[in-house]
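Protocol step 4 of 6: structure prediction from sequence.
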Amino acid sequence: MTSQFSPGDALLIVDIQNDFCPGGALGIPEGDRVIPILNEWIDAAQRDGIPIIASRDWHPPNHISFKDRGGPWPVHCVRDTHGAAFHKSLQLPNDAHVVSKAHHSDQESYSAFGDTDLAEYLHSIGVKRLWIGGLAQDYCVLQSCLDAIRHGYDVHVIVDATRAVDVNPGDGERALEQIRLSGGVLKETFR
């Protein structure tokens, strides 16, 4: 992969967790197919000295998003469980900055910026542009991108490194269009 990075960039990898990959509690179709693409981006970021951030759902066992509490989702990504762990194929470096979100039982947070230190961390290291990929395109990637734009970051979505839940057919495409209309750049890197 030819490097896309410049000084002031960071790579944000959203929720590549076991429960969001096929076979997981909330498996996204082809969710695991983004991993080899993201690994290439991780390699390039490491070569170029670009910061890498990985977000994760880190739910308590009684999280408000779960169906038994009236939420829309099955129990997933309960902190300190196999389902909440990053997928074993994701080659995150040991120095990646990990952001845990949606960790309060009565508060939902799809965005990697929600109730986390992400905005402060990015500001502290001088980030201006974020490259974003991960799961799911129509929820956590969408909300992370919109929040990043609101925080003033130049946002580039690595489109082939995202997949959608598509609860309603076309949700993923609508999410990408919403990001684009909000000022984000859709980067197609299909090989």
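Step 5 (inspection) to follow. Residues 141 and 164 are 9 Å apart (CA to CA).
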